[in-house]
Records
---
Amino acid sequence: MENDRASSNRNINFQTLSYLYKKHSSQALEMIGKEIDYFSDISKERKTVSTLIKLLSRNPEIYKKLNKSATIIVDDIVEKKERDFYYSNFKFDSLTDFHKELLDYLLDDGGSILKSDLAHLFTLSDSLEWKSKVRILRNAYYGESGSFDSAETRYNKFISPVLKKYKETEMIDLIERINSNSQIYDRSFNKYINKRVKEASDKLLGEKYDYSAYPNFLRAVE
């Protein structure tokens, strides 16, 4: 609905619906299936659909129950590739496919991402593989830094808070991205950042790890 009362209560209604669905998902999904047209009669208001997208992200099975009139509205907003895009896992067959699309967006389309988006993505699965993929997204965004200043900012926001949790694959991926971007390795002021990465890497990979494949990274920590 679109009126003052509905708009002012949108967030609490979202939280309530999320809670009710979590407690009674099978019954709710059955109800939606029996009244598809009713539940597919959704608003076209951007903010409202964005809230719905958040609900669908948490419960992707609902999206598959909606009819085309609803999915067209949802898809149109997702395809604009703004913040809603990071909540569109319900459109993909697997989280692996979703991750590939997100990675392409950050690397090829110059997309941006917020800490809150990453925090949401992290909750989509408890699997260690997925947690690793989300950290790779952090690396990718850092690795695409277009200036010395953005490199410093992105490191402090996206890498530093989780660096101690990195596994071997994620750490090597991070080093490779640093080694490939002069905006990260070629500024003396950022040397302390690269030294922190090296310290964390030595602790994880061992001080005898062969870094010869990453000469720019090595030069950045000297």
---
Amino acid sequence: MQRFLSIFGEQKCKIIGMIHVDALPGTPRYAGNWQQSIEKAKHEAELYKKHKVDAVIIENMHDIPYVQDRLLGPEIVSCMTRLSQAVRSIMPRQTPCGVQVVACGNKQALAIAKACQLQFIRAESFVFGHVADEGYTDACAGDLLRYRKHIDAQNVLIFTDIKKKHSSHAITADVSLLETAQAAEFFLTDGIIVTGAATGKAASDKDVQELSGKLKVPLMIGSGVTKENISQYYPDAQAVIIGSHFKHDGNWEQDIDELALQSFMHSICALREAT
């Protein structure tokens, strides 16, 4: 918990805004708009800065269909590095910035974070294997933390999804959510992320309560947080990651809706003042 607090501070329930960058060069939906993609990422960073979001994370979510990490080309890493640097240059120095490279590009994300002086990454498949949209994914904690040490990126926090969305966990059905979180904790995660079944779907109260107060690392909500349900997560979560709710029509594929962002931040400020 101390590693988290040293970067994010003591304030309750940090709001981490998601920047879903455009489809990158080489992926099926790339539209030949590389310079515009940079400007769009910078624009979204300016909006998050304006409305004083606590942190931001950059993700290549438009690169569907995803491939496993061994198939991620150098163009993905180089483009995500360029976009991350653009966002980092806009956000205030004290605002933590992170990156996620899907699918399971955890080493790639660490390298980007190191190069761009980002503070954290979001990692998939940290402990236990599972079957995701893109195929079977094995656990990576041992290899990933050794790589972090190897590139001298110990100051980059690794937040890890458990029983992650868009995946089948039948092969670990006999391992509870709490046992999975405790395994990730034992394997030195810097934070636990729980999600709903898919992007934009809320994490269940049952899942949150199963973990609340039982971990030594931060508990984070990674999908489905809205203005309407933030109060139910607020007492238990140290941070929430929000993408879809900040977009027009609550659709992750759309642009950021500044009014939705502004309204949510007013709500969280009121909630903080009331507690």
---
Amino acid sequence: MAPQVVTFQAQTGPHPSYIHVAEQYVFQQQIQNSLVAIGTNPTREDTFRLQGVQWINDVRTALQLPVRTFCTAVHYFHKFRLVHKDNEYQYPDAAAAALLTACKIEDTLKKSREILCAAHNLKVSASEHLSSDDAAFEGPSKVVIGLERLMLEASGFDFRVRYPHKHLIKLAREAGLDKDVTRVGYNIMIDLYRTFAPLKQSCSTMSFACLELATKVLEKQQEKLNGKNAPRYKKWGTRRAEVLETILDLLDLYTHFQKSSIVGPGHSMDKFIQLKIKVNQEAGEGHRYTETHEAPKTNGFNKNIKTPKTPVTPASPADVRTNGKDGASPATLSPRSSGSGRRGIGARGQDGTVRFMLDAEQAKEEKEITSKYFKEEYEEYEVEVDEPIKPEKKEDRRPQQPYQRNGPNGRDDRPPFHQNKRIRR
């Protein structure tokens, strides 16, 4: 009889579900980690991002939609691309789904067929224009409607979108800037949406950055924003470091993708390079990003990731296959099955329900209350068990000596005979 320790696991209740808290602002480290997690190639990411934003801007201009619809559409387009891989969808389909979602949110209603028809008519001559009722848009329309649900899920069903152009006009009036400077700043604001800055910064920060860059590009009225009588950052709820970070995001766009912007082609590359050197000197070495982010604990598991300064380019993109099967593409998922169906990279809670919340404090309190009901508890018991005797191998057997009835001491050297009896209690 040998004592052994047996461990029993207490059964837990149903799955606690997953809570997705919508984030109105994100950090630069979060953006980089999301791109690394889905295995995005940086070159492809820049290309698809710029082409998607340009597609949205061209179509909304053709449909005569206001600039607030453009801001909302690009905001959802960026959020969607931080969750799903580029090879899971076509960027025109994602851009059309973002514009359709923005039209509903901003109450500038347009059907998916009308958006696709406007995009088609921009590429062909006037003699080949089609109407929105044409049968050619039936298939693409279903794809766009299917992506609309994923667009809302990627943003956490958060409809809080910022409109910085209003703040830009108010700031220009307060600073007393000329109309030509304000016009250039307005176009720079549209170019700013080709970057991830609208996900990180507030309206006042983006307004200061666009107007200051406009004064530096035109080389006039710079004292209006940096002099003694200039508007104060504290009054507008921003800081100098955040403004410099936004200006550097714009200068990265103008130095690397000058032809893919509105203001870039109208000025020389050397001017933007010189401005970038001066702004880098003011910001300081290693102080490009003003804030750092530490990932919180989610459902009891610590998902902290060491945030790199720059996104790492993976040797090979992450595989979309799950359990030997290809993950379904978001473009082919219907709105009904997209919430619970198996998806590719970025799927949340495949074994449980995903719940979307806006209040982070309420989500934290709810997790603290329910976490004690889903802890894995173990109990140890010490029990005695019968261990079977291993059979003796033939090669280990030794020749048995004959027993002597009268040993050297005059005793019988045969082993005593014992009979074991097991008593059941």
---
Amino acid sequence: MSGAGAPDFFYREAQRLGYVARSAFKLLQMQKQYKLIKPGSSVLDLGCAPGAWLQVACQSLGPLKNGGIVVGIDLKKVKVPSLHCDARVQTVCADVMSIPKCQIRALTPQHKGFSVILSDMCPSVSGITTKDAALSFELGKRALDLAIGGNSLAHSDDDIQREGQSDGSSSGLDDDRVLQPGGHLVIKLLESEDVQELSHICKPLFRKASWLRPKATRSSSREIYLICQGFGSK
């Protein structure tokens, strides 16, 4: 068999291990390389359908006694997978492009925001390369906006760096963002000339920003992930 839907090693492994999709191995690789999710983390999964990243995120929290939460948001109503998930996982059916930030923060303990934000959002693929890349870029910008705030996106790199550093010791959370100081952000994008724009915004804001094409990515796919670690920790 051939084509994007053909079963392969990761597809078969996902079935064998009880993951609802082969995409689980993308986050598993990120977790192995970057250790984004730790015991007690609060994780937001944007575009969570069908739920494979919910499974990996919950596993990464460790035993139930360690605490932590995983919240998935998707346009579709997503049932929490029965395998690899526990009571710490919940899903919300909403449009990420329009849901208020205060509504997202309200899903976290003391409304403090999330320590890890994962965006695996992808547009409905049209097959037109430039159109699909542009739509993916808009989803990526929205994920970044939710994480660090729209005000930061409008400023220069120097202004962004000062903002990231100035509130790093604050006990509260800026009304314009959902990511906690020191938190991590992952954004999926389709490769294009525009993707570097997000990287340029993130590099002065985070301790480290790097690109990753996971091994589980299909050879025909243009997916690439921007991994941002340590918000405001530079």
